[in-house]
Amino acid sequence: MRVLAGLVAGLLVSLQALALDLGSLSSADAGSGLKDALTQGTAVAVSRLGAENGFLGNDKVRIPLPDALKRVEGMLRMLGLQKQTEELVTAMNRAAEQAVPQAKPLLISAVKNMSWQDAKGILAGSDTAATEYFRRTTSDQLTEKFLPVVTKATAKVGLAEKYNEIAGKGAKLGLLDAKQARIENYVTQKALDGLFLMMAEQEKAIRADPIGAATAMARRVFGLAAK
What is the distance between the alpha carbons of residues 208 and 226, in angstroms, rounded to a whole number? Predict the structure, then answer.
């Protein structure tokens, strides 16, 4: 019991010290430091994914065939359609790489419009609290931005058009997830998932190593929050 009481007391002291440390910053300074770090993290994520092979060459975010096609991939190969399936995978990933740069202005706008209440929640939150904030506040807008780019890129691939025709019928019959009924919707969702995954990795890196933050204020804010 004494050991447990000591651990609880130590935890309370640590939490109080964190509150005092963060409290030593003005809300303006804390908000500025957080926004600097988030702007840095989003820029890195977007630039990496928006480059050639940003998706195709990264196993963490590479977009695979939709489940419906993966289940019959072997048959497609037997029918001599291996080249077409490979073309579709390449087209999907290239489409995502072309779409992701559209995210940068929306993400920066979300940072600028962040309330102090949001900032406090992020600083005191989990290792991916900022990423979840972005997911919550920008997903719908990002989908609108990504979809036309992805549609244009995948429309050039014959197998994509055939997939849309067959999958659309399957979705109406309840045989297929509606999210995968059209290739462009599937790719757009996967592109968003990949973007938020990379943003989460950047956020975790900054929290774990505040020295890597872009500005002195960002380093100070996350340095205090990491204590």
Answer: 7
